[in-house]
What does this fold into?
Amino acid sequence: MFALTPESSTWSVSELTSYIRELFEIDFRLQDVEVSGEISNFTRARSGHLYFTLKDEQAQLRAVMWRSDALRLPFDPADGDAVVARGAVSVYEAGGVYQLYARSLQPAGRGDLAQLFEQLKQQLEAEGLFDPAHKKPIPPLPRKIGLVTSADAAALRDILQVLQRRWPLVAVLVAATLVQGRDAPPQIVRALQWLDGRDDIDTIIVARGGGSLEDLWAFNDEQVVRAVYAAHHPIITGIGHETDFTLADFAADLRAPTPSAAAELAVPDQADVRQQLVAQQLYLQRQMVNWLTQQRRAVQVLSRGLGHLSPQANLNNNRQRVDHLTGRLDQAMTRLLERRRNQFLLAQARLTAVSPLATLGRGYAIVRHQDGSYIHSVNQVQAGDPLQVQLNDGQFAATVEGK
Amino acid sequence: MLPDIDDMTFETALEELEAIVARLEQGNFTLEEAMQLFERGQQLTHHCNQQLNQAVLRVEQLTADGEIIEVDS
It folds into this structure.
């Protein structure tokens, strides 16, 4: 809309100024412009807005940066700084001036942020701040976690949710800080040192949600990086998104891609731990059963051994031996008797064979005196001697008639 | 006298449980000892699970005045 009225050639100051402002604002190039120059007349108002002038050798440009943008500045601008400012050019009607409404400011003299990052990274790396050997292990079962993050950010909520879900036994001590802008680094350093000085803290998480390189710049601040390195408690960083790497990440003992991931790395998962508990319980039971079985077996073996030594067993043993011996004796006797009987039969047979009685059977007779003495010769008898004559089937008395 | 399991933190209970398992693995104890170890192991496992079941995340925050206050998680 134009304030121009063709009928009248006289404008009020406001009308003209407003017209000029509108001219600026319809030029889209002026709505997003990047300009380099040196800062002078730098003022930080109590409101937090920044006022300064950008100049080069031939010209100067007034500039303002509102507090909301100023808070996000990764560095503290000062007179003489060569910078690249980005923003829109428009007219401040009350002052009758055109000026740059800067939304961001980067140091140009020291190169852009990416270069600054590289420089500082190389410097701190050379100093050994990123040395893997310096990194401390993360305690597997922390009792209390210190948390450095913004009080009202989604990052805090995410972290607490993860901790509650995974390991609600842990306690959290939050030291809230700004996480971007020029005031953030000293606050982060102070919060870190305060938490690090406490001996009830096991692990410290430093977290911030995603944002632009400028937003995350506080975590590239040299003092912050040094404080992370110097901490005695292990530090996990979860800053920005997967692809964001800050220098604080490099100095931390463990870098997580996001705040939630940092929380996950800080505590065990109770599901895993419960499973382990079950496994351990089963193991305990099996161990116990094994042990008992083993003992029972040992008892069996021993009792068997003991059985051999007991008086009862001795008795049994003896009894058995007696039985055994008795058996052997019986057999021996039987065998002996058998043998004797055979011998006897044999002897009897032989005896029978040589017996004079057998000769008697063939018709011979044995002749004896009355007193039983054998008569071998006729000289042994006188006429009238009584004789005994034995034949095969008996005997009779006889008398010698004569010789 | 063994410490009361009810007063134990999760970590302490878990530590003792692990020690008991290691002890049982070694063997070399009396039956009474074995039964005591086993029973205590069971109680410790139960206590650990119980602790997990009852746990609620405790969140404290440092205030601007340097005080530590409990906040809802």
